[in-house]
Amino acid sequence: QVQLVESGGGLVQAGGSLRLSCAASGSTFGIGTMGWYRQAPGKQRELVSSITRDGSTNYAESVKGRFTISRDNAKTTVYLQMNSLKPEDTAVYYCKAAKLLPPHDYWGQGTQVTVSS
Question: pLDDT of 57-85, one tens digit each?
């Protein structure tokens, strides 16, 4: 089992910044891609950004140039630096870790990000 604990959410004014962290614990051996998803009220959960073990990154078009994903050397913590935040970034942000053997996706409990206009 893998446990994911997110932190760093909060309330910020438009144009501000936040940094989210997601720490994995438990049976972390074999974790591959990690990523951040978000879900706004009344909307489906969507991918924000992901990063592979070798550091390859992927971003949603809506956050390119504003958000940066990174991963520590031990590859069990993933970060999301969010700059130039907009009210439309308001959502619950979830961390996901994909384990390869056996294949299984683990999710964190979510952290609220609220951007005021």
Answer: 999 999 999 999 999 967 689 999 999 99
pLDDT digits (tens, 9 = 90+) for 97-112: 999 888 999 999 999 9
Q: What distance in Å separates the CA atoms of residue 25 and residue 104, rounded to the nearest whole number?
A: 15
> DSSP per residue over 43-85, as a string?
S--EEEEEE-TT--EEE-GGGTTTEEEEE-TTS-EEEEEE-S-
- CA of 19: how far to CAs of 32, 100, 101, 103, 108, in Å? 22, 27, 30, 29, 16
Phi, psi of 86 (to 5 degrees): -120, 155
Q: How far apart are CA 77 and CA 97, in angstroms?
A: 10
Extract the tokens encoding 53.
Answer: 């073990």
R_g of the chain computed on alpha carbons: 14
